[in-house]
Amino acid sequence: MEPGNFGPAGADYWAVEPPSAGGRDERIPAMSRTGLRLLGGAAVVAATIVGSTLPAFAHVTVNPNTATQGGFTKLTFRVPNETDNTNTTKIQVSLPAEHPIGSVSVKQHPGWSYTVTRDKLAKPITTDDGQVTDYVAAITWTANSPASAIKPGEFDEFDVSAGPLPKTASLEFKALQSYSDGTVVRWIETKPASGAEPEHPAPTLKLAPAAAGGAAANGTAATTKPAAAAQADDSSDTASTSSVNLAIGLAVAALLVGLLAGAAGVIGLRRKQPVPVAPSRETSRV
Question: Is it the case that residue 41 has pLDDT exceeding 90?
């Protein structure tokens, strides 16, 4: 029987034929509905594991996401391009006025220029260097040319050293991301008490109280100067990168396990089908 033809009673060529005595057919039968369900279910489980394991990379974030009250730290603002056909040409980060940071220095970024906006403090704050009457209210990085802009599918990082960090539970660094087509994405939303992540969350730094004796939780003394603190926080950023790599590895492993489980289920349902053998014909002599 040729493929596409049908046998008696409309039997499809790819359907399993009834067994009969004789030789065996090496043809593999069509995949059963149960096999498809197993494969589909395995794929769904693997996709769920991947989705729950990988962190959200598409948002503008501040790293590390935890620091110590009273200490200095290096803050890295990670900026991804979420579009398919436009470049990120500018990023503006606002520092909270309600919890001003006394000392902020910006690291030069190749291919980009930056400007610092300062505002007067309603109430001066005291640092190791004396009283501070104004503070850094915003930092704006701008690409010097299209070649240095952040392309679709890419990300970039911008560093500052900041401290002493205020005694509060967290700091929000609201950010505006500008694209070459004039679009501006406002990363300014506060996470609600329910814990649900908003569509455009503001980069948030959690602050932990200093450990006993005035030492920072990450091993940096609360009075460490910015340069030394920035070097110490490199280890935190490396640890964060390692965690991301581990999450990706686990997700890939989960996907492979899911696909292999589905394939094993399908193979287990396959069986060799017997093929009908024409009855022997006796030759009679006249």
Answer: no
